[in-house]
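Record format v2
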Amino acid sequence: MIWEVFRQDKPGAYHKHCGNVHAPDRELALQFAAVQHGRRMKTHSLWVVPRDEIGEIDTDETSFGGTTDKTYRWATSYTDIEPAAPEVAESEAEQADVERSLEADS
Amino acid sequence: MDLETVKERAGPRQFAPKDDMPEEYRKAATRMLQFHANSEVMGGYLEKPFIRQAPSIDRKLAFSAKVQDEIGHAQLLYRAAESLGVKTRDEMLDELARGEGKFLNCFHYPMESWHEVPMIAFFVDGAAMHRQVTLKNTSWTPYAHAMDKVCFEEGFHVKHGESILSELMNGSKATQEKTQAAFETWWPRIIQFFGPTNDKSVHNDFAQQVGLKTKSNDELRDTFLDTYVPKAEKYGLVVPEYPRIEYDEANDTYHVNEDDLDWDEFWTIAKNASAGSHEQINSRAQAQEAVEWVRESMHSWEGASGAGTPQAAD
């Protein structure tokens, strides 16, 4: 049985997928995950999930969108407006990062 | 975990669903999250009519995207609230529909003209973001994670709102006057966004002690004023004489004279007991009823055998 492993490096962070382990049950899956995925990397917590329990949909099956021009929904589009507050500037910077990654992939 | 340990350990993203949290903490966090989630729903419904009334196709698209975002934020927050194990999502939505769920004071007032739109879309959203960014450091991790996504999206809302304000305040004299009038109506409500002053707040101290809140109502209100009073003035809006806003030179910050605000009205609203409260709750019920056929058709489609491949919304 295959268990997908998600590692959280510090309290409050997101659990991110980091690999998988073979194990007959949850208890051993946790032990194997701790050894294989927790030992070398900075780890605060691990999740294990049976692979069969994970649903997936990908670009072969659906179109995720993103092809329509939706510039109106990005803070970066309102170029004549300076961010009103630091938190607005921060949000805009996060959006600009995502926009750049979309452009890099296209 | 006992309450003393919670207070000792309280800090950003300290507690997660796997921790055994005391009932006081779970109830306080549920109350905060449910209020926040309800406010996203009610704010979305208040702004929804302006998708139709928007003066241009760009505004219409942006407004529709924004309302969609707000309802999405509500879903995230109900999930984070559910993770405390006190109330289910359905219970919270039922309470809101029955008029028992509490929500933000600003969303208990009708909004009728386009000139009022930036009062919500710029000032209230700006205030919301000012508060939400501090909640990225709340002690309940699922709440902080919801704030990561909310704040990511919210920058667009605030800039779009400011863009509308800028357009109105660069419009005809009549447009500017109507916008100023809307500002005078909404300004005291916007200041009350941050809730009662610390000394009158029932929940503030506990929420800070256990790390659910990292800033007090008063701190948030003052720093909001520091940023948004100059912004209002930049666009030619005149801040009304009352409530008195005083500049504290020593600390380089603005304070509001709280006695000038109508706290009777605020507490009536806090109990969902104002005329506006009933109007907003009922108008949402009517909207819910009007689109019941959509839910029904979705249920019957989901119930049908062999439902096809879901299509992502483009």
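Residues 2-53 of chain A form a domain with the Ubiquitin-like (UB roll) fold (CATH 3.10.20.520).
Chain A has a mean pLDDT of 89.
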